[in-house]
Amino acid sequence: MDRDTIRTMLRDMLRARAFEEAAAQAYAQGEIAGFLHLYPGEEAVAVGVLHAAEPGDYVVSTYREHVHALVRGIPAAAIFAELLGKKTGVSGGMGGSMHLFDRERRFLGGYAIVGETFPIALGAAYAVAYRQLPEAVLCFFGDGAVNQGTFHESLNMAALWRLPILFVCENNRYQIGTEIHRHSAVTEIYKRACGYGIPAEKVDGMDVLAVHEATRRALARVRAGEGPQFLEMETYRFRGHSMADPGSYRPTVEVQAYEANDPIAATLRGVEFHYPSADELGSGHDCIQGFCDHCCQEGHLDEAALARLRQEVADEIAAARDFARQSPAPSMDDAWAALLRNRRYDRLFEEQAP
Amino acid sequence: MAELSYWQAILRAHDEEMARDPLVFAMGEDIGVAGGTYKATTGLYAKYGEKRVMDTPISENSYTGIGVGAAMLGCRPIVEIMSVNFAWLAMDQLMNNAAKIHYMSGGRIRCPLVLRLPGGTAHQLGAQHSARMEKVFMGVPGLRVVTPSSPRDAYGLLKSAVRCDDPVVIIEHEAMYNLKGEVPDDEHFTPLEGSEVVRPGKDLTLFAYNISVHWALAAAERLAKEQGVEAEVVDLRALKPLDRTGIAASVRKTHRAIVVEEDEAAVGVGAEVIAILNEECFFELDAAPVRVHARDVPTPYNRRLEKASIPNADDVVAAARKLLGR
After folding, report:
1. Is position B32 within any domain?
2. Chain A residues touching B63 at Cβ < 8 A
3. Using one digit for the tens of pLDDT, what is the confidence trace for A188-213?
4. B104 neighbourhood in chain A, CB within 8 Å
5. What is the ipTM of this complex?
6. Are residues B161 and B287 in the same domain?
7. What is the pLDDT of residue A306?
8. Do A119 and B62 touch (CB under 8 A)?
9. Do residue B47 and residue B177 come from a single domain?
């Protein structure tokens, strides 16, 4: 994989973490109400999957969808404004944290009812196949969602009709507060897809490169007309289910073990320059010395670039939050417009009128 | 003008809309190869092929959701749920998604889904196949609910529903599919809003919808012959939104109102119509409005009890005489 792609993915992971931490802060300060489900810990999944997808692909997400929206290209400011219920929000302030929609970026929504997204994604895939379009549909869901009837109904129809859909299970091991061994008879989620003849694979969801590669391969099969594909991403959320949930049901050692495997830190290890020691620099042949010098230069650039990147991300998220704060609230007229805007039907009867 | 049965009128609307717009497709249980439980999609599978007339697995919630998702991408799905009773299984997709996506997206993503629901008390189908569920749908912001009482409206309402960008629930009646009536040969659209005076009168108004329009018309006929009473019959037709203006206008003329419904009274159409009368024209009323409605019991299987559990023209006549003090 080329360095630019790795850097872009790293940038998005940093943006994702910074956005969610800023949202948590805004929630703590009372600027965001309702439920707020945050994504820290799972960044490698959204970033790896969405960077392997095409811009024309459709995305159906859950209530933990800020990062999917952000990585999809929806401006941080429009998402933040939505969290604050402002008119400038991506859903006009009518959706809130759990209902981000963006027609242009083919982001078909965040949904608050677990499992109801399978049919929506399937319908999008049906429309893509029906209209003979080249796109695929990406359907994100958690390990808890596979216990809904819609999961089985939808996997059956997806396989039956060979629809162009990639199911991405973000298995963070907890269905709200219930650990996977206590909510699922089969804890290897990907095996459930095999019951419908859907090719399925388990992926290290903390490794963004592994996620990217698995997604790339799966989407190639979708686009080749091989029908639905299924990826189980093994991941972990560092926070509770929502801001209302301290996550106290999880053993501290478990949380610490996963935090030690932070996907952002892991990615940073891949790109951060290892400074050669004086001994290393002082030994060896000229060609080694030359290579070390070159790396040192690269490393210097990397180090500075990384600092710049962190600063840029911090500035972007701070600006997004400021924009959201300063944006106007929607009016009741805006709410009516969101509900009733329906020009095509009105035109029909205008045309019919004498 | 051709005389068509209710099912033929629905079939004609399907056929015209599918021929006109390649984005219109139909989906449901047994609607394709088998032609539909009530024949409303007969021949379409052969004419338009499998993708446009799709037989689904018995997965009501998910195939209703497929309609929602496809509608979000610009398709115009007509989803048939074989019996309205099975719509309980599809409530999440209907109530949480179809009704709300347009709003939750700030009005930016439309959901032009048409849902066709055969319902009502037919022929001893038992408590789980005889539901009237209009009261459930008409309480939900974001849905439109219409219900045709004639082949003409069955055709015109489906045509309008397909062209509408809102999700539209069409409640048909299993006992009316063979009902014949005139349908104009020219293409026409029945508005998804507003009621229709199907028999003018001056002494009282009978509000009805779907099959109860026929009970009200039969009762009005008898009231005219036997009592010299001129009852106005208003076909409500659109249940969401209800026609506040039309409802009040009729009662301003007749000053008395009866709502005739096949459904149980509680939390229903009659309750809403009477609330509208209270709000719009209370002082025009010469008598307290009443409801003629089903007994509050799961629909009995036994034929005699089934009939007794829902109203008929006799009940309407009796209620009218009582209201008029005759």
Report:
1. yes
2. 119, 153, 157
3. 999 999 999 999 999 999 888 999 99
4. 91, 94-95, 99, 101, 109
5. 0.95
6. no
7. 77
8. yes
9. yes
Q: Nearest by CB to A345, which of B92, B108, B164?
A: B164
For residue B169, give every residue at least 6 positions away whose Cβ sits within 8 Å of its Cβ, in sequence order, or none.
B94, B115, B117, B137, B143, B144, B145, B146, B240
Q: What is chain B's mean pLDDT, rounded? A: 97
Instruction: Give the pTM.
Output: 0.93
Q: Which of A59, A69, A11, A46 is nearest to A233 (CA)?
A: A46
- Residue A200 phi/psi, 5° resolution? -140, 150
Q: Can you give the C-alpha Rg of chain A in angstroms?
A: 22
For B66-71, what is the mean pLDDT? 98
Considering its fold, how many domains does chain A have in total?
1
Of A183, A214, A180, A184, give the one whose Cα is nearest residue A199.
Answer: A214
Specify whether B214 is catalytic: no
Nearest CA to A228 out of A137, A130, A135, A120 is that of A137
Examine the pLDDT at A145 and tell me if it is beyond 50: yes
The CA-CA-CA angle for residues A124, A236, A216, to 5°, reads 45
C-alpha–C-alpha distance, residues B199 and B216, integer Å: 10
State the average pLDDT over residues B256-276. Answer: 97
At residue A342, the pLDDT reads: 60
d(CA A177, CA A174): 6
B226 to chain A, any CB pair closer than 8 A? The answer is no
Domain presence at residue B190 = no
Q: Phi, psi at residue B236, to the nearest 5°?
A: -65, -40
**Residue A271: pLDDT band with limits 50, 70, 90:** low
Question: Is residue B188 domain-resident?
Answer: no
Q: Which pLDDT score, from 0 to 100, does residue A63 have?
A: 97
Of B29, B60, B261, B264, catalytic: B60
The answer to the question of residue B191 being in a domain is: no
Report chain A residues whose CB lies below 8 A from the CB of B65. 116, 118-120, 122-123, 150, 154
Higher pLDDT, B312 or A293: B312
CA atoms within 13 A on the CB side of A85: 13
- Does the pLDDT value for residue A61 go beyond 60? yes
Give the gyration radius of chain B's Cα atoms. Answer: 19
Q: Do B63 and A339 touch (CB under 8 A)?
A: no
Instruction: State the residue range of the domain holding A213.
Output: 3-349
Query: Catalytic residue among B129, B173, B214, B293, which?
Result: B129
User: What is the per-residue pLDDT across A179-189, written as a single tens digit (0 to 9) for each?
Assistant: 999 999 999 99
- CA B217, CA B313: separation in Å to the nearest integer? 8
| Annotation marks residue B129 as catalytic | yes
Closest residue on chain B to A330 (Cα): B106
Distance CA A218, CA A211 (A): 10
Which residue from A58, A101, A128 is facing B104, i.e. has the nearest CB?
A101
The pLDDT of residue A7: 79
Q: How confident is the model at residue A248 (pLDDT cuts 50, 70, 90)?
A: confident
Residues of A with CB below 8 A from B111's CB? none
B15-28: string of b/e by CB count within 10 Å (b at 16+)?
A: bbbbeeeebbbbbb
Q: Do A119 and B104 touch (CB under 8 A)?
A: no
Residue A292 pLDDT more than 50?
no
> Do B176 and B213 sit in the same domain of this protein?
no
